[in-house]
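RECORD TYPE: protein structure
NAME: dITP/XTP pyrophosphatase
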Amino acid sequence: MTTSRVVLASNNAKKLVELQALFAPLGVALVSQGSLGIPEAEEPHPTFVENALAKARHAAQAANGAALADDSGLCVDALGGAPGVLSARYATLFGGPKDDAENNRTLLARLGDTAQRRARFVCVLVAVRSAQDPEPLIAMGRWEGEILSELRGHAGFGYDPLMFIPTLGKTVAELSADDKNRLSHRAQAAEQLRRQMQEVWQLG
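PREDICTED:
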């Protein structure tokens, strides 16, 4: 595979910036699907893997080329893995708006005074050369932590201000962008996917 342009199956500007940095070593130019007029795909599946694959195939079909999709979220043990694949719109399940601040408030309300706060950020990245690619590249990263009872830090997005990483003594929202890109669930998945792209797609 010689092309370095890959369509990112997302319209999340912050996610695009993170992934652009993570895949820069391969010389891959990520282009958001929104900039090409490609609508978002449906995400009806219960797992990150299935949704990421569906989004990658959708973007590849519309762009007639290679695509990369990210499906990620927060899994909290005490909530049976919720919010999971519904992380970005968790508050809407309880009548709230689709909004980071409201999602955080909803998470804290659902946890209440639960002592068990173990959680993990999960990221699945899927890359396909075409919508019919029989050999999708799939990578998964997990970042273990625990949910605080109040917000800390102002960097990042989503649940970052609530996700405390014990080994670092900080929430994700208290980390620099460089540290997050080096340690995060997305960084872990990206490292795996970069290796696969080098080996299978012969990029970089």
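COMMENT: The beta strands are 5-8, 29-32, 67-76, 118-128, 137-147, 163-165, 170-171.
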